[in-house]
Fold this sequence. Notes:
It catalyses: (6R)-NADPHX = (6S)-NADPHX; (6S)-NADPHX + ADP = AMP + phosphate + NADPH + H(+); (6S)-NADHX + ADP = AMP + phosphate + NADH + H(+); (6R)-NADHX = (6S)-NADHX. Residues 11-214 form the YjeF N-terminal domain. This protein is α/β, with parallel strands linked by helices and 497 residues long. Helices cover 44% and strands 15% of the residues. Helix 17 crosses helix 18 (443-465) and helix 18 crosses helix 20 (478-489). The radius of gyration is 26 Å and the shape is elongated. The two termini are 24 Å apart. The model is unreliable at 493-497 (pLDDT under 50). Bound molecules: ligand NPW and adenosine-5'-diphosphate.
Amino acid sequence: MSEFILSPEGARRVDARLEPAGLLDLAMEEAGRAVADAVQASFPEGPALLLAGGGANGGDALVAARHLLALGRAVHVLAQPSKHPLTRLNRRRLRAVGGEVQPLNLSSLRRAAASAGIVVDGLLGTGFVPPLRPALAAVIEVLNAAHDAGLPILSIDIPSGLDASCADVAGLSVRADMTVTFMGFKTASLFGEAATRSGRVTLAPLRVPPDWVRGEALGIRPDDLEVAVLLPVRTASAHKGTAGRVWIVGGHPGTVGAAALAGLGALRAGAGLVTVHSLADVPLVTPELMVQRHTNWDHALPELRASGLPDAVALGMGLGPQAVGVAREVLAWGIPTVLDADALHPELAGHGHPQCLWTPHPGEAARLLGMGTPEVTRDPLAAARRLQELLGGTVVLKGGPSVVASADTLSVSRGGHPGMASGGMGDTLSGVLAALLGQGLSAADAGVAGVRLHARAGELAARAHGYGLIASDVSDELGAAWLDLKQSWGQFDTDSD
Ligand SMILES: NC(=O)C1=CN([C@@H]2O[C@H](COP(=O)(O)OP(=O)(O)OC[C@H]3O[C@@H](n4cnc5c(N)ncnc54)[C@H](OP(=O)(O)O)[C@@H]3O)[C@@H](O)[C@H]2O)[C@@H](O)CC1
Ligand SMILES: Nc1ncnc2c1ncn2[C@@H]1O[C@H](COP(=O)(O)OP(=O)(O)O)[C@@H](O)[C@H]1O
């Protein structure tokens, strides 16, 4: 099932629908219970210290404390005063079952932290409005010092002090080992330094009408089953001519490996026939890859067109200074096209078509949008949306994780591995995407499926290579990643499919 991504405003609008129906109390109960379960499952040792702020985030902490007590766990609760009716109600409920609530201040925190096995941070959630007030800043400093000394922290919904809608970390915030977030992931749970501060993030969807959440969602995060159904299935009579003919147009003296890596990626993602067209000598990365060296693009492109177009083309990888002119010609062919690297130029805006897949990394995205790279990485969902509006077709804004933006959906990929931060990984992805386009997927489906396939291959390759991962290792695992995704569907017969 897809998971959703929510803005703080979207979460508040869902709250506003729950409250008059009397359902906010139940949502808080479920949220607090999910936190208690996570504490028991992941941090079973020692007393649990729960910190409750004045808002609903603090209410979740008080509910969690009650559930932990009921499970027999030693709990210690420090709370700020609250005007929030449900938070006050849950403070009374906690007391009613014998739980003690003491005021939160620096000395009570230091004392309790010294004997705690886990701290639950329920100080600030999506209602936080920066900047952090000094009194809470001092609390978070003590908390982070205790964390540095080895005390684990689980944050409720979002680490206190983080702006949920932003991947950057502007000021002081809690450094969590784990975050239990509700209804949908927040931008801060998924991207950048904010995601690092969130630790391992798990989603408690809460029993809220899914249409209420879907209606507010900024985007979705498909699971592997949803990706698996997008991957093409061949009939027994398939042959190389029906499995997708792909051209790679790229390479230039000095950067010709980029085109070769794309070719390898396309072969390993199932393309039937792959030819690299280049002005430079392409290294023989594998004999199955066909190579045509041309002397100049002005002659080569009309000849190629006349020779019969392939099912899909990927262009730009290491293509060099002529990339924009070449891209204009290739776009006029009107066939499924991946545009990467040197072909990602603002001059091409308006020249695309619905079967285009544009694959910028944040630096290229910034060049296309005429902004700085930090603006792109601060809010990758917004940047991907703007890129799609500028370029049309489908945009893959690459990163860990990548965002796939089509006209009607924003989708965030799961997985990948930090070992994928090495040159050539994006070239491999371009080949993968072209192979999927060549096998008949729409640009939007190829974007979602190709990015996850590439990320899964990266995860598998990292088992052997860790941070020493190189792009051709990822290509080598594409077949295994494909099988893996299909098996998650549970309908894959490895002998015949
Ligand atoms: N449907 C859902 O998603 C559900 C969401 N749920 C939960 O609700 C949470 C959102 O709750 P929320 O709206 O009450 O806000 P919350 O984060 O507790 O913050 C408000 C408190 O912070 C304070 N404060 C603010 N800024 C500050 C600053 N700069 N520096 C210092 N303090 C500052 C502010 O103080 P005040 O301004 O009132 O003085 C007030 O006390 C959400 O994250 C999730 O945990 C669940 O209960 C179940 C259903
Ligand atoms: N930390 C990471 N986690 C997951 N994927 C990553 C990470 N770092 C890089 N990648 C992936 O590697 C690829 C890098 O692309 P790009 O920067 O264009 O590489 P190149 O231009 O060297 O080919 C992207 O698909 C990106 O999603």
